[in-house]
Amino acid sequence: MERTLLLNYTDIRSNPIVWSHDPSMMWDPVSKKYYSYSTDVYRPEFGLCEKRGIPVRSSDDLVHFKYEGTVLSKNASKEGADNGSVPETEGFWAPFAEYVEGEYRLYYSATRAFGSSESRIWLAVSDNPTGPFENRGVVVDTWGTDNTYPNGIDPHIVREKERCYLVYGSFFGGIYIKELDEATGLSKDGNAKSLGTCISKKPIDSPIDGPEGAAVIYVPETEYFYLFQSYGWLGDTYDIRVGRSRSAVGPYVDMKGQNLAGEALGVKLAGSYQFCSKNPNVKENGNGWEWGGIRGPGHGVPFYDPQSKRYFFVHHFRDGASVNYHYDEEENRASYEVHYMMIRPMFFVNDWPVFGPEPYQGEQFEPISLERITTTGECLTFIDRDNSMVISKEISSEDIMKYGKNCIVYKCTDFENDGEIVAVTGIDDSGLVYWGKFSIL
Predict the structure, then answer these.
(1) Cα 384 to the chain's mean position, in Å?
(2) Rounded CA separation 108/212 (Å)
(3) Alpha-carbon distances of 423 from 29, 243, 277, 354, 373, rounded to whole Å
(4) Is the pTM of this model over 0.90?
């Protein structure tokens, strides 16, 4: 099967999933296409110097994408970036779009500066998924607040019965949820300064910073709301975590029943990892590129595809090749510079979500019995409070059998190598998530 996730190729026109940061995903019932909106990215050293205004990519199948340009109108971009007496916002972050009653609604973030908690979330609307979008108004405004308040960025929409909610926030005061007016998409109380309710906040003793990049989805099959979020440094140690609740407004808890609002980080579903790769899918390696695994998967959105009636999770990640490595002496941290969008299948084990270990390439997810695994494979686990790189280890078929019904086993395309494999994804009773890969005899 074709491997469309191509590394070491930074031309966005030919390789549309490169430079996608904080990606969202929307199914458009009108055009019958998928649209992914992402954070503004400026990388002139790689030939990418797109104007400010929210990039969008389209797809017919969730596998092949086309870069469509930016979607905000010139006036909307100018208005959204205007910070009065201080310098204007350079680029917009973390958009989320949806189709509601004949119009497309695009929520996006405009912050004072990187690392600032003074930000705004704007709502822009259009009659076309590729724009132009015009601003309707500000939904959340944390301008003038200090770091004890939530940051007005990273919007996501969730509904419960007749109510519509905005999920937002980043680090600082945590993740918040506030009610919106379904008819307009703006604040229910008409006040952009109203914050709503905190549903997630970093525990005092946490060794990892966060949370941010939150998104909530309701799953009818389990009757739970799931709050996904990221902890760690986005350039290297980013991760994806989850908690669940019977209500959109919480409380959200982990598998031990600990509240994500100050007690727990959430169940860790993915972090930086490296499977063995004998034939990575790269454009070229003349620049010294060598396989270095996947760094910092994070800031993603859960997505239900009405076409396939399956769940997916869409997130960005960093190419772990050493040629992309940069160390910031002042900040005392590493970053991997080149990032891509990845779409993973999402399954549910004992009413908890787990991701496929390989990116989606159009598979039908043919189930495989554990008893049919007779080869030695690779396995990795995601430790809760350690966000360092996880390297896969050899595992036997006998070892994988011990997980029993706590896993999903299926055929898929091998991202790190050619051909098909048997993939295993699961979660044990303590909340430890594991991935496995086995060859097909």
Answers:
(1) 18
(2) 15
(3) 32, 24, 15, 12, 10
(4) yes
